[in-house]
Amino acid sequence: MKKALFSLILFFLSISNISAHTSHYKGIKVINMDVFRNGKLIGYSNYFFTHGKNTLEVKNYTKFKVKLLKLVIFSISGESLEKYKDGKLVSYHSTTFQNDKEKYVKLKFDEQYNNFYIDGSSYKGRADPNTIIGHWWNHKILKSDKQISPISGSIKKQTVKFIGTESIKFNKKNYILHHYKLMSQNSNLPEDKRLDFDIWLNPKNNLIYKITYEKAGKWEYRLKNFEIN
Q1: Nearest Cα to 63, choosing from 38, 84, 32, 91?
Q2: Mean pLDDT for the chain overall
Q3: What is the CATH class of 2-228?
């Protein structure tokens, strides 16, 4: 009980430092995640990091297919590039083909207005500078009350709840992970637009090890491996 309470206090204290968390990934070169649906491996979501003196670039490649009777009923194929300077997001670009339909995001930080300007397939307009890209490499997703869809640019308001500390086995090794629940602030949203994720974070290296959700099946993003300098 005391350990859980202490972890919860740390979680809320860390919110005040939301813009500096990219420094936690210094030395990270690659994060590879497998994508499962109903327990079957169907694809991947992999991140590649390039570190500069005061900069960070993160490339993502995501691809998976859902088949029914050998027919593809749902597919995602996308790539993106995030750019950070002094720990703050300055631009983001993505192109994604969802069931062969193209979606995109073009985001840049506007210094004059101190906010983001987004040109996306689902949203065009401005966003608060504390809003983050909803990618799974970044544990800041657990510290923000808003996220930007990495596929379409839409802004989604969220709440995050600390569930507790749990022991989970990965690659025959046990890890002590922090379990969080991330949900949409508006529970009346249609199911296909609603956020409802369980997320497990390793507090020792700030890496997300596992994400699960249910949407036309049971989905899981699972850390496969990572590389450091």
Answers
A1: 32
A2: 89
A3: mainly beta
